[in-house]
Amino acid sequence: MSLLQDLKTTPRLGILTGITAAAVGIIYGYDMSNIAGALGFLEIEFDLSTQALEQITTAVVIGEVLGALIGGWLANKVGRRTAMIGVATGYALFAILSALAPTVPVLYVARLLLGLTIGVSVVVVPVFVAESSPAKIRGALLVAYQVTTVIGVILGYVIAYFLSGAGNWRMMLGLAAVPAVVVLLIVVRLPDTPRWYMMKGREEEARNVLNRIEGEGSLNVATELAQMSRSLREESGGAIREMLRKPFLRASIFVVGLGFFIQITGINAIVYYSPKLFALMGFEGHASQLLLPALVQGVSLIAVFFSLSLVDRIGRRPILLGGIGTMIAANILLIAIFLISDDFGGILTALGFTGVLLFTVGFTFGFGALVWVYAGESFPAHLRALGSSAMLTSDLLANVVVSMFFLSMLQQLGGAGTFMVFGALAVLAFIFVLRMAPETKGRNLEDIREFWENGGRWEVKN
User: Fold this and answer.
1) Could you tell me the residue range of the domain that residue 254 belongs to?
2) What's the rounded Cα separation, in Å, for the pair 240 and 237?
3) Which terminal CB of the chain, N or C, has fewer other CB atoms within 10 Å?
4) What is the pLDDT of residues 42-79, one digit of tens each?
5) C-alpha angle with apex 251: 248 to 255, nearest 5 degrees?
6) What is the sign, positive or negative, of the torsion defined by CA atoms of 34, 37, 43, 45?
Protein backbone atom coordinates (compact mmCIF):
# COMPACT_ATOMS: atom_id res chain seq x y z
CA MET A 1 0.00 0.00 0.00
CA SER A 2 1.38 3.48 -0.93
CA LEU A 3 1.93 6.31 1.52
CA LEU A 4 -0.99 8.23 0.01
CA GLN A 5 -3.32 5.27 0.53
CA ASP A 6 -2.07 4.86 4.10
CA LEU A 7 -2.79 8.51 4.80
CA LYS A 8 -6.31 8.21 3.39
CA THR A 9 -7.11 5.36 5.77
CA THR A 10 -5.57 7.02 8.85
CA PRO A 11 -7.99 8.76 11.27
CA ARG A 12 -7.81 12.54 11.36
CA LEU A 13 -6.23 12.82 14.83
CA GLY A 14 -3.33 10.53 13.95
CA ILE A 15 -2.41 12.74 10.99
CA LEU A 16 -3.17 16.06 12.71
CA THR A 17 -0.97 15.23 15.69
CA GLY A 18 1.98 14.34 13.49
CA ILE A 19 1.58 17.32 11.20
CA THR A 20 1.16 19.76 14.08
CA ALA A 21 4.25 18.48 15.84
CA ALA A 22 6.19 18.51 12.59
CA ALA A 23 5.14 22.12 12.00
CA VAL A 24 7.45 23.07 14.87
CA GLY A 25 10.19 22.19 12.40
CA ILE A 26 9.37 25.32 10.38
CA ILE A 27 10.27 27.49 13.36
CA TYR A 28 13.33 25.39 14.14
CA GLY A 29 14.59 25.62 10.56
CA TYR A 30 13.88 29.35 10.32
CA ASP A 31 15.84 30.00 13.50
CA MET A 32 18.77 28.00 12.08
CA SER A 33 19.11 30.03 8.89
CA ASN A 34 17.93 33.54 9.76
CA ILE A 35 21.18 34.17 11.64
CA ALA A 36 23.06 33.60 8.36
CA GLY A 37 21.32 36.64 6.89
CA ALA A 38 21.65 38.71 10.05
CA LEU A 39 25.36 38.11 10.73
CA GLY A 40 26.63 40.52 8.09
CA PHE A 41 24.54 43.37 9.45
CA LEU A 42 25.35 42.53 13.08
CA GLU A 43 29.05 42.58 12.14
CA ILE A 44 28.72 46.12 10.80
CA GLU A 45 26.31 47.56 13.41
CA PHE A 46 28.21 46.28 16.45
CA ASP A 47 31.72 46.12 14.86
CA LEU A 48 32.13 42.40 15.64
CA SER A 49 35.15 40.16 15.12
CA THR A 50 35.05 36.66 13.59
CA GLN A 51 35.16 35.17 17.08
CA ALA A 52 32.26 37.37 18.23
CA LEU A 53 30.17 36.27 15.23
CA GLU A 54 30.90 32.64 16.11
CA GLN A 55 29.86 33.28 19.72
CA ILE A 56 26.53 34.86 18.74
CA THR A 57 25.83 31.95 16.41
CA THR A 58 26.85 29.42 19.04
CA ALA A 59 24.75 30.99 21.83
CA VAL A 60 21.65 29.28 20.45
CA VAL A 61 23.45 25.95 20.25
CA ILE A 62 24.67 26.18 23.86
CA GLY A 63 21.07 26.85 24.90
CA GLU A 64 19.98 23.85 22.82
CA VAL A 65 22.35 21.60 24.78
CA LEU A 66 20.82 22.75 28.06
CA GLY A 67 17.31 22.30 26.67
CA ALA A 68 18.06 18.81 25.41
CA LEU A 69 19.41 17.84 28.83
CA ILE A 70 16.09 18.68 30.51
CA GLY A 71 13.82 17.83 27.57
CA GLY A 72 13.39 14.14 28.38
CA TRP A 73 12.75 14.79 32.07
CA LEU A 74 10.25 17.55 31.22
CA ALA A 75 8.38 15.38 28.70
CA ASN A 76 7.96 12.65 31.31
CA LYS A 77 7.07 15.03 34.14
CA VAL A 78 4.46 17.34 32.59
CA GLY A 79 3.57 15.39 29.46
CA ARG A 80 4.48 15.62 25.81
CA ARG A 81 1.63 18.01 24.96
CA THR A 82 2.30 20.44 27.82
CA ALA A 83 6.00 20.49 26.96
CA MET A 84 5.11 21.36 23.36
CA ILE A 85 2.88 24.21 24.52
CA GLY A 86 5.86 25.55 26.45
CA VAL A 87 8.04 25.16 23.36
CA ALA A 88 5.69 27.18 21.13
CA THR A 89 5.38 29.91 23.78
CA GLY A 90 9.15 30.08 24.26
CA TYR A 91 9.79 30.31 20.53
CA ALA A 92 7.50 33.33 20.26
CA LEU A 93 8.77 35.20 23.33
CA PHE A 94 12.49 34.74 22.73
CA ALA A 95 12.28 35.48 19.01
CA ILE A 96 10.71 38.84 19.88
CA LEU A 97 13.34 39.48 22.57
CA SER A 98 16.10 38.77 20.01
CA ALA A 99 14.55 41.28 17.61
CA LEU A 100 14.34 43.98 20.28
CA ALA A 101 17.84 43.44 21.73
CA PRO A 102 19.56 46.85 22.15
CA THR A 103 23.05 45.44 22.82
CA VAL A 104 25.12 42.37 22.02
CA PRO A 105 24.90 40.96 25.59
CA VAL A 106 21.08 41.18 25.49
CA LEU A 107 21.06 39.52 22.07
CA TYR A 108 23.35 36.79 23.41
CA VAL A 109 20.99 36.08 26.35
CA ALA A 110 17.92 36.13 24.08
CA ARG A 111 19.49 33.63 21.72
CA LEU A 112 20.63 31.47 24.64
CA LEU A 113 17.01 31.29 25.88
CA LEU A 114 15.77 30.66 22.34
CA GLY A 115 18.25 27.80 22.13
CA LEU A 116 16.96 26.39 25.41
CA THR A 117 13.49 26.25 23.85
CA ILE A 118 14.83 24.63 20.68
CA GLY A 119 16.70 22.03 22.73
CA VAL A 120 13.49 20.98 24.48
CA SER A 121 11.64 20.86 21.16
CA VAL A 122 14.12 18.58 19.39
CA VAL A 123 13.67 16.07 22.22
CA VAL A 124 9.91 16.33 22.68
CA VAL A 125 8.71 16.56 19.08
CA PRO A 126 9.99 13.17 17.81
CA VAL A 127 8.69 11.49 20.97
CA PHE A 128 5.29 13.16 20.57
CA VAL A 129 5.07 12.13 16.91
CA ALA A 130 6.29 8.56 17.48
CA GLU A 131 3.80 7.98 20.28
CA SER A 132 0.84 9.59 18.50
CA SER A 133 1.14 8.05 15.03
CA PRO A 134 -0.11 4.74 13.60
CA ALA A 135 2.81 2.35 12.92
CA LYS A 136 2.11 2.25 9.16
CA ILE A 137 2.92 5.96 8.70
CA ARG A 138 5.04 6.66 11.77
CA GLY A 139 8.30 6.80 9.83
CA ALA A 140 6.80 9.14 7.24
CA LEU A 141 5.48 11.53 9.86
CA LEU A 142 8.82 11.57 11.66
CA VAL A 143 10.55 12.38 8.37
CA ALA A 144 7.93 15.11 7.83
CA TYR A 145 9.55 16.95 10.74
CA GLN A 146 12.72 17.20 8.65
CA VAL A 147 10.65 18.37 5.66
CA THR A 148 9.23 21.27 7.63
CA THR A 149 12.66 22.03 9.11
CA VAL A 150 14.11 22.40 5.60
CA ILE A 151 11.15 24.57 4.60
CA GLY A 152 11.92 26.75 7.61
CA VAL A 153 15.59 27.00 6.60
CA ILE A 154 14.56 28.10 3.09
CA LEU A 155 12.18 30.72 4.48
CA GLY A 156 14.96 32.04 6.71
CA TYR A 157 17.25 32.65 3.73
CA VAL A 158 14.55 34.07 1.44
CA ILE A 159 13.12 36.44 4.04
CA ALA A 160 16.65 37.55 4.95
CA TYR A 161 17.24 38.38 1.30
CA PHE A 162 14.11 40.54 1.02
CA LEU A 163 14.99 42.34 4.26
CA SER A 164 18.68 42.70 3.37
CA GLY A 165 18.10 45.82 1.27
CA ALA A 166 17.07 47.70 4.40
CA GLY A 167 19.54 45.81 6.60
CA ASN A 168 16.65 44.90 8.89
CA TRP A 169 18.23 42.10 10.93
CA ARG A 170 15.74 42.66 13.74
CA MET A 171 12.80 41.68 11.56
CA MET A 172 14.78 38.67 10.29
CA LEU A 173 15.05 37.33 13.85
CA GLY A 174 11.62 38.42 15.10
CA LEU A 175 9.43 36.87 12.40
CA ALA A 176 9.93 33.40 13.96
CA ALA A 177 7.25 34.43 16.47
CA VAL A 178 4.49 34.27 13.83
CA PRO A 179 4.48 30.48 13.13
CA ALA A 180 5.12 29.87 16.85
CA VAL A 181 1.79 31.51 17.74
CA VAL A 182 0.00 29.46 15.06
CA VAL A 183 1.46 26.20 16.40
CA LEU A 184 0.50 27.18 19.94
CA LEU A 185 -3.14 27.72 18.97
CA ILE A 186 -3.29 24.23 17.45
CA VAL A 187 -1.36 22.28 20.07
CA VAL A 188 -3.54 23.45 22.97
CA ARG A 189 -6.44 21.57 21.35
CA LEU A 190 -4.65 18.22 21.10
CA PRO A 191 -4.56 15.40 23.70
CA ASP A 192 -1.37 13.98 25.12
CA THR A 193 0.02 10.67 23.83
CA PRO A 194 -1.47 7.26 24.77
CA ARG A 195 1.89 6.05 26.07
CA TRP A 196 2.29 9.00 28.41
CA TYR A 197 -1.20 8.41 29.80
CA MET A 198 -0.28 4.76 30.38
CA MET A 199 2.94 5.75 32.12
CA LYS A 200 0.82 7.83 34.50
CA GLY A 201 -1.73 5.04 35.08
CA ARG A 202 -4.49 6.80 33.10
CA GLU A 203 -5.52 3.81 31.00
CA GLU A 204 -8.98 5.03 29.99
CA GLU A 205 -7.56 8.25 28.57
CA ALA A 206 -4.91 6.22 26.76
CA ARG A 207 -7.62 4.00 25.27
CA ASN A 208 -9.72 6.97 24.13
CA VAL A 209 -6.80 8.69 22.42
CA LEU A 210 -5.57 5.46 20.83
CA ASN A 211 -9.05 4.84 19.44
CA ARG A 212 -8.96 8.28 17.86
CA ILE A 213 -5.51 7.59 16.37
CA GLU A 214 -6.07 4.03 15.10
CA GLY A 215 -9.79 4.29 14.42
CA GLU A 216 -12.71 3.39 16.67
CA GLY A 217 -12.95 -0.34 17.25
CA SER A 218 -9.55 -1.13 15.75
CA LEU A 219 -8.10 -4.45 16.91
CA ASN A 220 -4.70 -2.71 17.17
CA VAL A 221 -5.91 -0.66 20.14
CA ALA A 222 -6.34 -3.59 22.54
CA THR A 223 -3.06 -5.15 21.36
CA GLU A 224 -1.06 -1.93 21.78
CA LEU A 225 -2.53 -1.20 25.20
CA ALA A 226 -1.65 -4.71 26.36
CA GLN A 227 1.90 -4.35 25.01
CA MET A 228 2.33 -0.97 26.72
CA SER A 229 1.00 -2.29 30.00
CA ARG A 230 3.22 -5.38 29.89
CA SER A 231 6.38 -3.45 29.01
CA LEU A 232 5.76 -0.88 31.73
CA ARG A 233 5.28 -3.64 34.31
CA GLU A 234 8.46 -5.41 33.23
CA GLU A 235 10.63 -2.33 33.09
CA SER A 236 11.94 -0.60 36.18
CA GLY A 237 11.37 3.13 35.95
CA GLY A 238 13.16 5.54 33.66
CA ALA A 239 16.52 5.87 35.39
CA ILE A 240 19.58 6.83 33.40
CA ARG A 241 21.43 3.88 34.93
CA GLU A 242 19.10 1.53 33.03
CA MET A 243 20.35 3.07 29.78
CA LEU A 244 23.92 2.28 30.84
CA ARG A 245 23.47 -1.45 31.36
CA LYS A 246 22.25 -4.37 29.29
CA PRO A 247 20.08 -4.74 27.29
CA PHE A 248 19.89 -1.01 26.54
CA LEU A 249 23.58 -0.08 26.74
CA ARG A 250 23.96 -0.92 23.04
CA ALA A 251 20.95 1.27 22.24
CA SER A 252 22.46 4.13 24.24
CA ILE A 253 25.80 3.83 22.44
CA PHE A 254 23.98 3.84 19.11
CA VAL A 255 21.81 6.91 19.70
CA VAL A 256 24.59 8.94 21.33
CA GLY A 257 27.02 8.05 18.53
CA LEU A 258 24.46 8.75 15.81
CA GLY A 259 23.58 12.11 17.33
CA PHE A 260 27.26 13.06 17.48
CA PHE A 261 28.02 12.08 13.88
CA ILE A 262 24.95 13.89 12.53
CA GLN A 263 26.40 17.26 13.55
CA ILE A 264 30.17 16.77 13.70
CA THR A 265 30.16 15.98 9.96
CA GLY A 266 29.42 19.67 9.34
CA ILE A 267 25.89 20.32 8.09
CA ASN A 268 25.22 23.31 10.32
CA ALA A 269 28.47 24.92 9.28
CA ILE A 270 26.85 25.09 5.85
CA VAL A 271 23.52 26.37 7.21
CA TYR A 272 24.92 29.01 9.59
CA TYR A 273 27.79 30.27 7.48
CA SER A 274 26.83 29.58 3.87
CA PRO A 275 26.97 33.29 2.88
CA LYS A 276 30.59 33.37 4.13
CA LEU A 277 31.40 30.08 2.35
CA PHE A 278 29.83 31.19 -0.93
CA ALA A 279 31.70 34.50 -0.71
CA LEU A 280 34.94 32.48 -0.39
CA MET A 281 33.96 30.59 -3.56
CA GLY A 282 33.61 33.82 -5.52
CA PHE A 283 29.89 34.58 -5.19
CA GLU A 284 29.12 38.27 -4.57
CA GLY A 285 26.06 40.22 -3.39
CA HIS A 286 23.05 39.39 -1.19
CA ALA A 287 21.24 37.58 -4.00
CA SER A 288 24.03 35.03 -4.48
CA GLN A 289 24.94 34.67 -0.82
CA LEU A 290 21.34 34.27 0.48
CA LEU A 291 19.25 32.97 -2.41
CA LEU A 292 21.77 30.32 -3.48
CA PRO A 293 21.71 28.74 -0.01
CA ALA A 294 17.91 28.80 -0.25
CA LEU A 295 18.17 27.06 -3.64
CA VAL A 296 20.45 24.42 -2.09
CA GLN A 297 17.90 23.77 0.63
CA GLY A 298 15.09 23.70 -1.93
CA VAL A 299 16.80 20.96 -3.89
CA SER A 300 17.59 19.10 -0.68
CA LEU A 301 13.90 19.25 0.18
CA ILE A 302 13.28 17.02 -2.85
CA ALA A 303 15.71 14.53 -1.31
CA VAL A 304 13.70 14.61 1.91
CA PHE A 305 10.52 13.79 -0.01
CA PHE A 306 12.30 10.81 -1.57
CA SER A 307 13.29 9.73 1.92
CA LEU A 308 9.71 10.30 3.09
CA SER A 309 8.33 8.04 0.37
CA LEU A 310 10.91 5.29 0.91
CA VAL A 311 11.45 5.13 4.69
CA ASP A 312 8.51 2.80 5.35
CA ARG A 313 9.11 0.77 2.17
CA ILE A 314 12.84 0.00 1.78
CA GLY A 315 13.75 0.70 5.40
CA ARG A 316 15.88 3.03 7.49
CA ARG A 317 19.39 1.63 6.97
CA PRO A 318 19.63 1.90 3.15
CA ILE A 319 18.49 5.52 3.29
CA LEU A 320 20.92 6.45 6.06
CA LEU A 321 23.92 4.76 4.44
CA GLY A 322 23.09 6.20 1.02
CA GLY A 323 22.91 9.72 2.45
CA ILE A 324 26.25 9.44 4.25
CA GLY A 325 27.87 8.00 1.12
CA THR A 326 26.70 11.05 -0.83
CA MET A 327 28.20 13.34 1.81
CA ILE A 328 31.55 11.55 1.46
CA ALA A 329 31.48 12.07 -2.31
CA ALA A 330 30.66 15.77 -1.81
CA ASN A 331 33.59 16.21 0.57
CA ILE A 332 35.96 14.65 -1.96
CA LEU A 333 34.72 17.09 -4.63
CA LEU A 334 35.13 20.12 -2.35
CA ILE A 335 38.62 19.04 -1.26
CA ALA A 336 39.68 18.68 -4.90
CA ILE A 337 38.31 22.11 -5.81
CA PHE A 338 40.07 23.91 -2.97
CA LEU A 339 43.33 22.05 -3.71
CA ILE A 340 43.25 23.11 -7.36
CA SER A 341 43.05 26.83 -6.60
CA ASP A 342 41.94 29.42 -4.05
CA ASP A 343 41.20 31.81 -6.90
CA PHE A 344 37.62 30.87 -7.64
CA GLY A 345 35.74 31.79 -10.78
CA GLY A 346 34.00 30.15 -13.71
CA ILE A 347 33.94 26.36 -13.58
CA LEU A 348 35.52 26.19 -10.09
CA THR A 349 32.79 28.38 -8.61
CA ALA A 350 30.13 26.24 -10.28
CA LEU A 351 31.77 23.05 -8.99
CA GLY A 352 32.02 24.55 -5.51
CA PHE A 353 28.29 25.22 -5.54
CA THR A 354 27.72 21.65 -6.76
CA GLY A 355 29.78 20.27 -3.89
CA VAL A 356 27.78 22.21 -1.28
CA LEU A 357 24.56 21.14 -2.97
CA LEU A 358 25.59 17.46 -3.02
CA PHE A 359 26.68 17.61 0.63
CA THR A 360 23.36 19.11 1.74
CA VAL A 361 21.25 16.73 -0.34
CA GLY A 362 23.11 13.74 1.10
CA PHE A 363 22.58 15.01 4.62
CA THR A 364 18.87 15.73 4.28
CA PHE A 365 18.20 12.40 2.56
CA GLY A 366 19.99 10.37 5.23
CA PHE A 367 20.99 11.94 8.54
CA GLY A 368 18.49 14.79 8.41
CA ALA A 369 15.48 12.61 7.78
CA LEU A 370 16.42 9.61 9.91
CA VAL A 371 17.53 11.43 13.08
CA TRP A 372 13.92 12.01 14.06
CA VAL A 373 12.94 8.45 13.19
CA TYR A 374 15.63 6.88 15.36
CA ALA A 375 15.12 9.43 18.15
CA GLY A 376 11.50 8.32 18.36
CA GLU A 377 11.97 4.57 17.80
CA SER A 378 15.13 3.44 19.55
CA PHE A 379 13.90 2.97 23.13
CA PRO A 380 10.86 1.48 24.90
CA ALA A 381 8.19 3.82 26.26
CA HIS A 382 9.61 4.59 29.69
CA LEU A 383 13.09 5.36 28.28
CA ARG A 384 12.03 7.02 25.02
CA ALA A 385 12.10 10.63 26.17
CA LEU A 386 15.38 10.16 28.06
CA GLY A 387 16.91 8.30 25.11
CA SER A 388 15.82 11.05 22.74
CA SER A 389 17.30 13.60 25.14
CA ALA A 390 20.64 11.74 25.22
CA MET A 391 20.75 11.51 21.44
CA LEU A 392 19.95 15.16 20.84
CA THR A 393 22.31 16.32 23.61
CA SER A 394 25.15 14.49 21.85
CA ASP A 395 24.00 15.99 18.56
CA LEU A 396 24.00 19.50 19.98
CA LEU A 397 27.37 19.21 21.70
CA ALA A 398 28.86 18.36 18.31
CA ASN A 399 26.95 21.33 16.88
CA VAL A 400 28.60 23.62 19.46
CA VAL A 401 32.02 22.50 18.23
CA VAL A 402 31.15 23.03 14.56
CA SER A 403 29.46 26.42 14.98
CA MET A 404 32.18 27.71 17.31
CA PHE A 405 35.17 26.81 15.13
CA PHE A 406 34.09 26.59 11.47
CA LEU A 407 35.02 30.15 10.46
CA SER A 408 38.33 29.84 12.30
CA MET A 409 38.98 26.48 10.56
CA LEU A 410 38.41 28.10 7.18
CA GLN A 411 40.89 30.83 8.05
CA GLN A 412 43.57 28.52 9.44
CA LEU A 413 43.18 25.27 7.44
CA GLY A 414 41.66 26.64 4.25
CA GLY A 415 38.79 25.02 2.39
CA ALA A 416 40.69 21.83 1.53
CA GLY A 417 41.82 21.18 5.10
CA THR A 418 38.37 21.94 6.52
CA PHE A 419 36.58 19.51 4.21
CA MET A 420 39.29 16.87 4.74
CA VAL A 421 38.29 16.93 8.42
CA PHE A 422 34.58 16.67 7.57
CA GLY A 423 35.25 13.94 5.00
CA ALA A 424 37.17 11.78 7.48
CA LEU A 425 34.37 12.17 10.02
CA ALA A 426 31.79 11.17 7.39
CA VAL A 427 33.73 7.95 6.69
CA LEU A 428 33.72 7.14 10.42
CA ALA A 429 29.99 7.85 10.50
CA PHE A 430 29.37 5.41 7.63
CA ILE A 431 31.26 2.63 9.45
CA PHE A 432 29.42 3.35 12.70
CA VAL A 433 25.96 3.19 11.09
CA LEU A 434 26.86 0.05 9.14
CA ARG A 435 27.74 -1.75 12.37
CA MET A 436 25.22 -0.33 14.83
CA ALA A 437 21.96 0.87 13.21
CA PRO A 438 18.90 -1.41 13.59
CA GLU A 439 16.34 -1.77 10.82
CA THR A 440 13.05 -0.77 12.51
CA LYS A 441 10.83 -0.63 9.44
CA GLY A 442 7.32 -1.91 10.26
CA ARG A 443 8.20 -2.82 13.85
CA ASN A 444 5.89 -1.90 16.72
CA LEU A 445 7.51 0.44 19.21
CA GLU A 446 7.10 -2.11 21.99
CA ASP A 447 8.81 -4.80 19.86
CA ILE A 448 11.95 -2.80 19.09
CA ARG A 449 13.36 -3.61 22.53
CA GLU A 450 13.74 -7.21 21.31
CA PHE A 451 16.53 -6.10 18.98
CA TRP A 452 18.60 -4.79 21.89
CA GLU A 453 17.75 -7.72 24.15
CA ASN A 454 18.98 -10.09 21.44
CA GLY A 455 22.42 -8.45 21.22
CA GLY A 456 21.67 -6.23 18.24
CA ARG A 457 19.88 -8.84 16.11
CA TRP A 458 16.26 -9.49 15.26
CA GLU A 459 14.95 -12.91 16.19
CA VAL A 460 13.99 -15.04 13.21
CA LYS A 461 10.32 -15.92 13.59
CA ASN A 462 8.76 -18.92 11.89
Assistant:
1) 3-190+235-453
2) 9
3) C
4) 988 898 888 888 889 889 889 988 888 888 888 888 99
5) 140
6) negative
